[in-house]
Amino acid sequence: MQKVAAYLLERTEDLQTPGARKAEGDRIRKVIEAWLRSKGAASVERAGTYAAVDGSDASYRVTTASDGDRSWTMFELTEVTKEGRRFVTTVSVTVGNKHVVVFVTMEVGSVSTLITRIDVDPRCPKVVRELLEQPGPWHHGASRLRVLSVVSGFDAGQSLAQEIQNVSRTIPFVVVSTIAGQTALPKLDAKLASDLAGVANVYTVDEDASWALTDTLRKPFSCYGGAVRVYWPRLSSQDEPYRHQLWTAARLQGLEDDEQFALDRIRRQVRTVIMRASAASVVRPVEIDDIRGAAARAEYATLKANANSLDDFKALADSYAADNDTLRRDLAARDKELEQFRGEVQRLEAEKRALLYHLGQANAHSEDGAEVEPDRPEDDDGAQPPTRGDVRFYKKRYDTPTHDVLVRVADCGHNSWQSSARADKARKGLIRLEGGTREWRVMQHCGTCTGGGMWRVQW
Ligand SMILES: [Zn+2]
Known about the structure:
A hairpin with a 4-residue loop joins strand 5 and strand 6. The protein is an alpha+beta fold. Among the domains are: 2-140, Alpha-D-Glucose-1,6-Bisphosphate, Chain A, domain 4, CATH 3.30.530; 143-254, Glutaredoxin, CATH 3.40.30; 391-458, no CATH class. It has helices at 18-38, 126-133, 154-165, 188-195, 207-217, 249-253, 259-281, 286-306, 310-360, 424-434; strands spanning 2-11, 47-51, 57-67, 70-80, 85-95, 100-110, 139-140, 143-144, 149-151, 173-177, 201-205, 228-231, 246-247, 391-399, 404-409, 417-419, 442-446, 454-458. The protein has a 6-stranded antiparallel β-sheet. Strands 9-11-10-12-13 form a 5-stranded mixed β-sheet, sandwiched between helices. The protein has a 5-stranded antiparallel β-sheet with strand order 15-14-18-17-16. It is built from 10 helices and 18 strands. Zinc ion binds next to loops. Residues 412, 414, 446, 448-449, 454 line the site of zinc ion (ZN).
């Protein structure tokens, strides 16, 4: 089996008492049971069958274990299509010592052995959306899971930039930039938010907020003008900018003649990229194995305490043997999974090399493939630090309360450079852009350019 997506939804607030955690676990299980019933399961006990939408062979199994106040319940749904493809979705609820955690995995495989990468287009399971709709905050590690967030204005953009840089962020952020309130494709932000519910946070930013992203993250890591960008956790200014995929508005709008087809393609692309990452990186909560281990040990202890005859001990030995078999099978499955991930890493490495090659071939050209290649991020204005004697031109593009946001531009061609004593915000903007350690010799502004904010700087 190949894991195609994994979700971790955590309840962490107001759960100090075992009673509160148990009640939350019960509430969550009810949502999952209702989902299972909505699929046609007659009961939600132990095991049974249900009617899959596409006529697949569909069955489910419920497994539970407990250890004192802690408990674990797993719902495993298996669907086998007529073509022999097997889809397994597991949804487990763990009531732990501190939190209540929902862990969801989606796997795909074949009934017969087949050594090939299976192309699937995983979708967010309905139960994940239903759980997220329940009142109260959900977390994934340190990050709070959110529905579509609208970020407007420079200050809000600055806060988002800080959240993007936050080293403890655990989930990808997807930023959809707008021009005059419009996304590059109709409702792109809402569609992506719906696709990525529980696995990434989606933000719509207006132009002012985009300026704040440019100002804080710098141009190679910014997102503006209708572009869409994925910001992976632990973003660093040392990262290669294309590690955080960017699709420009021109790319998105040029994908297909039909907007709807274009929308479908980019949605699939972003979904695949993020879900694949979740499958590889979301770690199964350790408390699950703690609880299961403790429950198994308790069961053995009871058997042992009550064993009087040779037959009883024989039964005990049998149950050990049965558990050993299960563990061996699990271990073999993990080995296989590991092998698959190794293959995946190699494939991604190859893809990366190919991507680098394409980027080297100047601007990416459009292809009719299913994959929507990311665009090359724009270079940093301050990438090459100025050296003594350089003359550079800057234009104020945005005004913040503390400094001007400057970008490097070409000479405006006027010849009316004037010294300016009161240019504190421009000076701060220049330091921000070109680094604080370098000193310029002359900073003059253009007296002819309308709107002001055109600077000539001699370093
Ligand atoms: Zn000028």
